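User: For my dataset I need records formatted as: sequence, then structure tokens, nothing else. Please produce one.
Assistant:
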Amino acid sequence: DVERATETDPVSSYDQIVADGSERARAATAVLPTSAMLPNRIVIPESGTDVTVLNPSSLDMNDLDAALLDGVVRHPQSAHFADPGNILIFGHSSYLPNVFNKNFQAFNGVQDLTWGDEITLHTQAGTKHVYRVSRVYTVKASETIIDNSRGKATLTLVTCDSFGSMDDRHIVEADLIESDA
């Protein structure tokens, strides 16, 4: 059936959306963070999102696609809570009427977020980090470059405009406003 075939299409090359030339950032990604340093759940009340965040260490596109079957994915080279910078999380969005895996709808509605909406990342250790949306926009997939440098604690969400689409990407940028440890 068409919907099932669409669900197995590869998303795209995830390493194409990350741009980072800093030596510090490359060195930081060599240290494997613990579960207390990584998000394991994302909650966005305004879009009804409450989904598992996976943290694979592999950059292989097949591994990242496989992880998306179980939730949304933090890019392995993006920041974590012990090394402030941009945490990049990507996930599927699908508006097909019959979806067999609800994770294909994980980021439905994120394109409708507005300035001031809050996004909360939780860790397995019980900490929570609250971000405020600062910008929401759509770009061509071929032009999607996300700044993955370290420094200011930010969050970027990326999803396709429709599941399996290779055309556009919805991007949500948010700034850290609160952390409890």
